[in-house]
Write a structure and sequence with these properties.
Largest sheet: 10 strands, mixed
Shape: globular
CATH class of the largest domain: Alpha Beta
Number of domains: 2
Strand content: 15-25%
Radius of gyration: 21 Å
Number of strands: 10
CATH topology of the largest domain: Rossmann fold
Length: 295
């Protein structure tokens, strides 16, 4: 049985040329899942200039136009054998209403297009996608870049540095999700760890040893941990990647060079300053030329 039985796709119906519907339909077709498309529309300030009666009529007509368009998309997908439902509604609080949809529908996967936000805006407001990564109780598939609608190359990005049980469980979930998605989509599965030794790591291992010796020792230890993960899941040698560099930069470079379609990563709950700055997965959204599946 497929790991996906119910998919929830959130779209902005004003972006009718977006490829996110094609991506969701491809995953639904490959997994045999049902698909519900929720089109959420932000209120239009310009409508407030109209008289009340005209305003309500304009609102109703605006939504109906989107319903007609979305139903046309659904009809095409049903013709291809998919079980699809759809709905269009106004949204005053996008994040909360998406979470309400998730709570009500209990989907196996939430799909949404990446919504790019400027660095300045991110400094003052938590982006919608970041909010979903932090609070959504189900895996989040954020579609970005111009990759294949049905993934052909999937990368599971693990963290081999931490030996805590919670990190081990998260690595397991990452690899399991990536493996299941690769099987359903008949895609290549790769396992990657971005190795980045900070000054703090070196100071902890210090005791007067040369930095070069410490770096080699730590790298050997981390590589052994990474190989153990790869062996546990039977990842072939040609699909194992132990790369050097900061995770965001290393993953971005790898995804571009290898034409990756989806990176599967873990979500971590942050507090205080870490929450303000954002996690690796959150920053990856604005760097990689592909989609991100966060578990």
């Amino acid at each position: 049985m497929s790991q996906y039985q119910r998919l929830l796709l959130i779209i902005n119906p004003a972006l009718r040329h977006s490829t996110v519907i094609n991506h969701a339909a491809a995953v639904a077709m490959a997994s045999g899942a049902t698909l519900h498309i929720a089109a959420l529309v932000k209120s239009l300030d310009v409508l407030s200039l109209l008289e009340e009666g005209d305003r309500e009529q304009a609102r109703a007509q605006y939504l109906q136009d989107h319903r007609d368009w979305l139903e046309g998309q659904a009809i095409v997908m049903r013709g291809n054998g998919l079980e699809v439902t759809s709905g269009v509604a106004w949204s005053e609080d996008m994040q909360q209403e998406i979470l309400d949809f998730v709570s009500e529908m209990q989907p196996d996967l939430l799909i949404k297009q990446v919504q790019h936000e400027s660095l300045l805006r991110r400094a003052f407001f938590t982006p919608l996608d970041w909010g979903l990564l932090r609070h959504c109780p189900v895996p989040v598939y954020l579609v970005g870049g111009a990759g294949h609608a049905l993934p052909r190359k999937i990368v599971a990005a693990v963290d081999a540095a931490s030996t805590e049980a919670e990190n081990d469980r998260l690595n397991d979930r990452i690899i399991e999700q990536a493996t299941a998605l690769a099987i359903q989509c008949n895609a290549e599965l790769h396992l990657l760890y971005a190795y980045d030794v900070s000054q703090e790591d070196l100071e902890e291992l210090g005791d007067g040893l040369r930095v070069s010796a410490l770096t080699k020792a730590l790298r050997k230890e981390l590589e052994a941990s990474y190989i153990a993960w790869a062996n546990r899941y039977g990842v072939p040698a040609e699909c194992r990647h132990f790369v050097v560099g900061h995770p965001v930069a290393a993953l971005s470079e790898f995804a571009e060079e290898q034409q990756v379609d989806v990176i599967v990563m873990g979500r971590v709950q942050y507090h205080g300053l870490d929450k303000l700055l954002g996690s690796t997965t959150e920053h990856i959204l604005y760097q990689v030329p592909c989609s991100v599946l966060a578990v």
